[in-house]
Amino acid sequence: MSNCTIATCGRPLRPDEAHRVTCGRCEHRIRAWLRELTYQLPLLEASLQHDRTPTQGSVHGGRAHSPLPVRLDVLNLLGPAAPGTVRDHPSDQTGPTPVPAVLHSWAQLLADDLGKPLPRLHPVRGYTGYLAAHLPYALTRDWVGDFHQELAELIGRVRAITRTEPQRHRQDAPCPSCQGFGLVEEDWQPYIECTLCGLLLTPAEYTDHAKRVMPRLYRTALLIATHERMTHMSTERVTVRVLLLFGDQAEIVADVPPEERAEPQRYPAAEIAAAVGVPVDQLAGKRLTAAVGDDDRLSGWQLA
Known about the structure:
Layout: H1 24-46, H2 72-78, H3 99-114, H4 125-133, H5 135-138, H6 144-162, E1 168-170, E2 183-186, E3 192-194, E4 200-201, H7 203-234, E5 236-246, E6 249-254, E7 265-268, H8 269-276, E8 287-292, E9 298-303
Helix pairs in contact: 1-4, 1-6, 3-4
């Protein structure tokens, strides 16, 4: 059995994935990134203008020319980009490759492998759609690992500018495979993933699964909560004081002013000492709490 060739993955490929070099999890990650780029594009364009916050500090030491009206880092990512190889003899090319150039280069490589001409497309939405449509074929090519890495780096640069990342939403139902509570839905991802075992579920599959298991879990949670509440309500605890020791007995009185106390009640001193972790000869004068039983006898001794 071979493994996924993505450097950050390495999961064993399932039998139905033996014809390609990447696992289903990495495939869906690539699809999500391609989809995210189309959603990030308006945010990237909106980030082109400089922040309008007034300049702080001294007016001295100004610049010799007016500042550029746009952000160069954003402009660099938006393009435009040369459709072919750039011969940079003066070495004046700086910054990362623009988004359209990255997408065009991989779309062109894919088209060459397919033996078909690359159609004229929108520089972002068109190429992401083209790459997503032919992704099953791309997953069989040795270069898909480099494609995955460059796409991940591109997404990272875009997110750093737009300050927008997909959010993860934990699901209520347990995983049908490992039974752990690790199912997570991430924005722009086509699948719900178990972070514990790696299982992927479509939204429809998760909905069907949740309909089967959640009513039983809700009933169990309700029974546990009801039991805890009834236990808490039925167990009353009082604060008492060990008045003195009388032989092997401890005389217990309510921890109230002497004039309000009732007659002392006697309990085995050794039993109380064992419960609270205090030597018997040191019990006298100790403040304790105890649970009141149905017969008004005390038990469950604890130090107050």
